[in-house]
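Researcher: We're teaching a course module on how sequence relates to structure. For the next exercise, students receive a sequence and then see the predicted structure as tokens, so they can try to spot secondary structure elements on their own. Here is the exercise chain.
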Amino acid sequence: MRCSSERPDRGFTLIELIVVVTMLAIVAVALTGAVSVFLRTSDDLDEKLDASHTAQLMAAFLPPDIQSAATFEDTIPTPGCGTGSLVVELGWTDEATSFLYVANYSIVPDGADQQLIRTMCENGTIIATDVVGHRISSAVASAAGQTVRVDITTEPTDADPSGYSFAIAGTRRT
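Model: And here is the predicted structure for the students to work with:
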């Protein structure tokens, strides 16, 4: 027989519910703070990564083009290969095939953005077009002897108010 003073456990007491709701509120405040910090810094991080990506792409493409180049142009008004505002045009002839190759780096508007485009031509026909930079503010090529250098600055951002500047250089083979 059961004792009438025993109550079956059928739920939570008011104190238990208040403690759980308070703990959930503390966890929610901490998570909200973490998400807020993440969202504020993710745009800055994206901008820095984009600028770094431009430097990596230029370091991958430009030095081999410079090493192959027999000719260097940075003053022709219209690129011989591709479109846009010319930064540098590098040309060479493949000794095995006698094909003329031209690697053209130019700035091309893309909406509010300016992209740095590498256009590769073989005997006057475009064979490859690669976007090697976004949000380009300026790109200037110069040559001293066999060394060709390209100085690039990206557009200013909140993360980098002066823009991200870097230089890529290579030496032409003779």
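Model: If you want an answer key for the exercise: The chain is about 30% helix and 40% strand. The beta strands are 71-73, 85-93, 100-110, 113-122, 125-133, 136-144, 147-154, 165-171.
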